[in-house]
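Form 7-S
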Amino acid sequence: ANYPFTPFRGSWLYTSMASAPAGAEGVRDALDILVEKKRIKPEENLEVVVLTGDGAAYGMGLSATSSAIERGLDFLYLCYDNEGYGNTGQQYSEATPHAARTATSRGPRGFPGYKKDLFAIWAAHRPAYAATVVASDPVDLARKIEKARSIKGPRLLTALSPCPTGWGFDPKESIEIGKLAVKTGVWPLKEYAGGTVTHTHIPRPRLPVEEYLGRQGRFAHLFHPERNEAILKEIQDLIDAYWEGVG
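Output:
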């Protein structure tokens, strides 16, 4: 749906990309005051949810998010991570993976930067809960949604969201791409609670990362007209180092 229309049945508030957590603070404060003044019944209270993309979550909205977590705002923050500014043509964002080709990284080596670790940034704030999810593992997704809803305080669910248009693959392969992200170790499924990080799935055996990269047009330049062994090895080494740290 386009502004000012929405597919959601509940109440909603549109904000600028960078200020969704500030809007959530206003809504949460208003609800708390209305309950305290008995203007609404406790059972009429609402859960405050922020739904945003990776451009805001990883980049331009991170300052407002950090402040909301610090204040202990009771809200659920859902990040739809398709690793680029998909609504304006798939320009690179702070969530874009190394070497991916986007509308603003069309060179022979793709995006020169590296994807931020939003989960680690949230965990450093010591929130009530944080988790990574992907729709291709619906059981893990459902369990984490239920857990997040049972907790009060700042909560994050960041979902890797394969994008056929932006990533360059057939839409019917969306679920398989999501599964490969997990099987190759590119997208670790994990959660943070009570100061502890737990991996909810450890890929064994872990597939080579090129099985994931090779299915996407945004990485085609790493394979054609010739293989870029240096970049492929760099990406694999980064993933291997992460999982060696997990143990």
